[in-house]
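Hello again,

I reread your note about wanting to compare the complex against the isolated chains. To keep things tidy I'm splitting this into two emails, and this first one only covers the full assembly. Below are the input lines as submitted, including protein chains and any nucleic acid or small-molecule components. They are followed by the predicted structure of everything together. The single-chain runs will come separately.
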Amino acid sequence: MPEFNPGNVLIYLYQLLGWWLGTLGIPAPIVVLIQLLVSIISVGAFALLLPIFTIWLERKVAGRFQDRLGPNRVGPYGLFQSFADVFKLLTKEDITPAGADKVVFNLAPMLTVLSVVTIWAVVPFASTMVGANINVGVLYIVAISGLGTISIMMGGWSSNNKFALLGAFRTAAQLVAYEVPMIIVLLVPVMLAGSMGVQDIVNAQGTAWFIVMAPVAGLIFFITSIAEIGRAPFDLLEAESEIVAGFHIEYTGMKFGMWMLGEFLHAFTICVLTAVLFLGGWQGPFAKEVPVLGIVYFLLKSFGMYFIVIWVRSTFPRIRIDHLHAFNWKVLVPVSLAAVVLTALVDKLVTTYLPGAGDVVRATALLAANVIGVLALLGIFRQGAHAERERLEGGRDASHGEAAHHDEPGEPGAAHASAH
Amino acid sequence: MNLSQIIFLVVGAVTIISAVLVVTLRNLVHSALWLIVTLFSVAVLFVLLEAGFMAVVQVVLYIGAIAILIIFAMMLTRRAMSDEASQTNGQWPASLLIAAAAFVSLAGLLNANAWPALPAADLSGTVRQLGLALVNLNAFVLPFEVASVLLIVALVGAIYVAGEKR
Amino acid sequence: MQTDWIFIGIFLLIGLVFPTVPLVAAFFLSPKKPNLVKNETYECGVETVGDTWVQFKAQYYIFALMFVVFDVETVFLFPWAVAFQAMPLFMVVEGVFFIVLLAGGLIYTWRKGALEWV
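Full-complex prediction:
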C-alpha cells in the first residue's frame, strides 16, 4: 500500500487506485490503462466543466467593468446562471440548414472542443502532476491549435451560408497570421529552458520566471494568444455589423453550445499556457515540497491572467481588419524575430564571457536587454508617428477637404501609429 | 502480435483508405478533409517509430499549414461547392499502370533486402542532437542556411506571382 | 516516453467522446420540427441569391503562403533552440544568420506592398 502524503494527495490517490486494482489480481498493463483512463477523464472533465464557472466569472467581471451587476438572479451571486444556460441550450431545437454538408457540419463543433481540450494533456498542474511529459510539448500545443483552425473552416464551409464562409476565411486568415509571431516567440522559453517539454520549461523557472527574463516575448505571446481566441480587440470573426455571427451563424442549440464551450475553454487555456510558459506555472514558495500548493499557485496565476483577458476585452475597441493584419506583419513579426535574436545573443554572451554568472546575472542581463530593446522600439514608433503626422499635415495643406480624419485625438497606442 | 503492431495495422489501413478517398472523391473540400486524415495517421506512424518530433512537425506543418494553404487555394477556384467535377481524365489507365509498377518495384526492393534490427537506443535526446547537427560546421550547416534561402525564394516567388495578377 | 504518447492517444479519442455526450443528450431532449422556411439559409431575412462559394481575393492566399514559409522556418529553429544551451557562440550566430536572412524576406515583402490588406 502506498504511503500517505498529505502534500501530494492526488498522486497518492492515483497510486492507491493502482495498488487496489493490483490486489484484485488484474494484470499490470490493464492497471496502467485504467489509471491512465481515470486521470484522462478527470483532467478532461475538469477542463470541460471549468467554462461553466469562467463564463459566470466573465459575465460578472465584465458587468462590473461596465458599471452593471452582471448575473444575480439564479442562485447566490448568480452562480448557477451558467447551469441554466446549459439546460436552455440542451432543450433548444437543433436546426441543420438546407444544403448543409451534414457530416462535416456535425463534426466541426466536436473537433473544435477536441482541439482545445487535448492541449490540457501536456499542462503540468504541479511538480508531480503532468499528464504527458513529452519532450516536444510546446510544438504539440501549436499542432493541436492548428486543428482548431481546420474545425472553423469546416464549420464555415459546411453551413452553406455566405456569411459563414466569409467569417470562416476571415477567421482562418487571422488565426494563421497571428500564429506566426506566436510560434516565433515560443522559441524563447524553449531556448532559455533548453527543452520543448512543458514540465522542463516550468522547472527551469525556479530562479526567475521567464516573464522577467523575456518580457517582450511574454507580452507578444499573450497578445497573439488573445488574437487566437478571437477576443476583443481582435474579435473580427464575430463582427456583427458585417458578417452577423461569422462562421457559426447557422449553428443552433447544443452545437452552438459546443462552439461557445470551445471558445471559452480556449480563452482560459491560453491563460494557463501563459502562466505555465512565462509565469512559472506551479512554481512558488514550497511548491516543490508540497505539490498540492503548486496546483494552487498554478490556478491563481491562470485566473490572474484570465482577469487581464477580461480587462482587455472590456477596455479596448475592436480594431479594423487592415490594422489587424498590419499590426501583425509589421509590428509583431519583426519584434518577435528581434526578441529571439536578442535573447539568443545576450544569453550566450553572458554565459560565454561571464562563466561564473548564475541565473540571477543572466536574468538581469536579459531584462536589461529587453528594456533597452523596448525603449529603442518606442523611439522608432515615435519617429514613425511623427513622420505620419507630417505626411497628414502636408496632405491637409494641399487639400483642405480631408481635414476631418486628422482632427481626432492621437491614436491610443504607438503600435497603431506605425500601422498605417 | 503486440499492441503497437495492432495500432500500426489499424493506422496503416486508415492511411491507405483515406489516401484513396482523397484522389477519388468528387468534392474538392471533402478530398482536402480526407487528406488531413491521411496526414494525421502518418503522424501517428511517426509516433509508433518513437519519432515524436517528426510527429508534431507533421501535424504543425502539414495539417496546420499546408492543408490550410490547400483550402485557401481552393477558394480561389469557382467550382469547389459542386460535386460534378471529376478527378480523373482519359489518362487514368496509364497512370494506374505507372503507379502499380512503382508499387511492385518498391515492394520488391523492400523484400529483397534483409533489414538489420537496430540496437535499442536512448531516443530522449534526439531533438537536441538534431539541433546541434544543424549548426555544426562538419554536419548540416550549409543545408540549414540554404533552407533559409530557399524559403526566401519561395516567399519572393509567391509575391511575384500574386503581384502579377493584381 | 511511449506511455506519454499512449496517454495523448487515449486523450484524443476521449476528446471526441466529451463533446459527443452533450450533443447526444441534446438530440434526445430537443424538439424536432423542421420546416422549409426554418431550414432556409440565414441571411438576415433576405432570400439567398446565387452560389454560396464567392470568389475571394488573392490576399488571403498570400498571407497563407507567408504563414507556411514562416512556420517552416520556425520549425527548423526549434531543434536549434533546444540545443541552444549546449552551443558555443558561433553556432548561435549561425542560427541568428538564419533568422536575419528571413527577416530580409519579410522586408522585401513589406517593400513590395504585399503586407497591405487591400
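For quick reference: The helical segments of chain C are 2-29, 58-82, 89-111.

B.
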